[in-house]
Amino acid sequence: MTYTTKMLSASERCCEHLIAAGSASATVAELADAAGVPERTFYRWFPTKEACVAPVLDAGSTRLAAHFRTAGGETLADLMLTGYEVVLGESYDERTMRLFPILHSRKELWAEVARAVNDGEHLYRPDLAGRLGVAPDAPLALVAASAVSSAFRQSVDLLARAGDDPRRTFRLLVEASPTTDLAVSGAA
Q1: What is the pTM of this model?
Q2: How far is CA 121 from CA 20, 106, 128, 143, 186, in A?
Q3: End-to-end Cα, the chain, rounded Å
Q4: Structural domains of the chain in order of their starting residue, each with its CATH number
Q5: Cβ-based burial of 2 (10 A; exposed 0-12, middle 13-18, buried ≥19)
Q6: CA angle, corner 90, sides to 84 and 94, nearest 5?
Q7: What is the predicted pLDDT for the residue at 188?
Q8: Closest by alpha carbon to 126, among 170, 71, 182, 64?
Q9: 134-177: per-residue pLDDT in tens?
């Protein structure tokens, strides 16, 4: 889905509200107020309360696709490790550490994470395939994109379930994956 700047901003404010509250128990009225929009607009933008986090999650996939198109690196591991920083690290570190355990506390919110990871895999697979020099539907592109999405999913899942450092988990998963030494071509 395509989000407007206002929708993304509202989603960011909803995530900030969840983090400040330290729980996922916010009402739609509270989230709409935090987003700075009337409830009617909230429901027009986000069909469910849980959907208010979708633009923030999907923005990470969009950043990753752009990263795969433009970043330097010689292997899939290089792209993945620098991609982590673009999606969950750098300026997103604190939000990552605080938001994902809250999202995990409600199955409907965690379903948004699962949806975003799945949709993201389809979004960035063509860019990743281009770097691997194969068609987007080639088995190699499917396996590589799956390795990327799996590493992201597992790193935030272990953060949420056990408090594990997602950056460390991501690095360990990248190092353990046999696909990550695949050579990639230069940035487009």
Answers
A1: 0.95
A2: 30, 23, 10, 11, 21
A3: 25
A4: 5-51 (1.10.10), 53-181 (1.10.357.10)
A5: exposed
A6: 105
A7: 60
A8: 64
A9: 999 999 999 999 999 999 999 999 999 999 999 999 999 999 99
